Amino acid sequence: MQDGLNTLYSNPNLYNSVSPVWFWPNSDGTLRALQSYNNQDLISFCRNNNVTVIPSIQIENDDVELVSSILNESVDQHIDSIVNIVVQNGYDGIDLDYETTYLEDKDALISFLKRLKERLSENGKFLSFTVLSKWGDKVGYGFRPQTREAQDWKLIGEIVDEFRIMSYDYRTRGNTIPGPKAPYSWYLAILRYAQENVPNEKIIMGIPLYAIDWKLVSNDKIDLTEYSTGESLY
User: Fold this and answer.
1) Within 10 Å of residue 36's Cβ, how many Cβ atoms?
2) Which residues lie closer than 8 Å to 101 by C-beta, 6 or more apart?
3) Cβ–Cβ under 8 Å, residues 16 and 52
4) Band of the pLDDT at 177, cuts 50, 70, 90?
5) Per residue in 52-64, pLDDT tens?
6) Strand residues in 59-193 grouped as ranges (E)
7) What is the DSSP string of 173-228?
8) How far apart are CA 206 and CA 37, in angstroms?
9) Cβ distance 156 to 163 under 8 Å?
10) Alpha-carbon separation of residue 177 from 127, 229, 231 (angstroms)
11) What pTM, to 2 d.p., does this model score?
12) Partner residues linked to 47 by β-bridges
């Protein structure tokens, strides 16, 4: 956290907004503040440098059952909690980073976003939503396919003020064979798909600024002839 703050403080002209992860939702729809919640030095600095503060709500451990419970059983409380925390603390808006959703909850997700957007707009606040990467409707996604289908880009793009795309982690430290985090052709495929479904002025593409170290765990040679670069996905 401190490294991030130092970077912001040294280069405020490079930032339009910041989204510190300050909240996790509870099963009853209320919000649980994290340890770094409401860093007053950060808020004050942003106010003085015309940088908007749009905190992010994330799901602890990407718990899909928790998301389903909130959308179907405690959505009213969740909307109230989000609006209250944004208004009471004077945030410019909120970002929702809900990275797991059952396909059967798609309609509930869209309804939730519409209602939340209406309430936030009434208070002059901003709604951002973060989605998993997609690059086509007929792609066989191996990672969280239900979430990708539930996150209907066209419908969500019509609702939110900002559409944030996780256009990174093509390969992660969980992969045994090293590879790119965001290969250029893959990145462009995501962007093209976004431009076909979301108003261009709302699209925010994520760019990874981190590195991954892969450790050699065996002296055995890797047969790279069996390694697919994923070009067929583009």
Assistant:
1) 13
2) 64, 67, 68, 71, 109, 146, 147, 150, 151
3) yes
4) confident
5) 999 999 999 999 9
6) 93-97, 126-132, 162-166
7) TT-SS---SS-HHHHHHHHHHHHHHS-GGGEEE-------PPP---SSPP-GGG--
8) 23
9) yes
10) 38, 10, 16
11) 0.89
12) none
Question: What's the order of all strands across the beta sheet hosting 126-132?
Answer: 31-33, 21-25, 56-58, 93-97, 126-132, 162-166, 203-205
Place of tokens 């209602």: 115
Distance, in Å, from the CA atom of 93 to the CA atom of 52, rounded to the nearest integer, reads: 8
H or E element that contains 31: strand 31-33
Q: Can you tell me the mean pLDDT for 119-144?
A: 95
In whole angstroms, give the CA distance from residue 43 to residue 91. 9
CA 197 to the chain's CA centroid: 17
At 215 the pLDDT is 74
The single-letter DSSP state of residue 67 is H
Rounded to whole angstroms, the Cα distance separating 231 from 162 reads: 29
DSSP helix/strand/coil, 166: strand
The enclosing H or E element of 144 equals none
Asked whether 186 and 231 are in contact (CB, 8 A), the reply is no
CA angle 167, 173, 176 (to 5 degrees): 115
Residue 27 to residue 74: CA distance in whole angstroms: 8
In our burial notation (b when 16+ CB lie closer than 10 A, e otherwise), range 52-80 reads: ebbbbbbbeeeebebbbbbbeebbebbbe
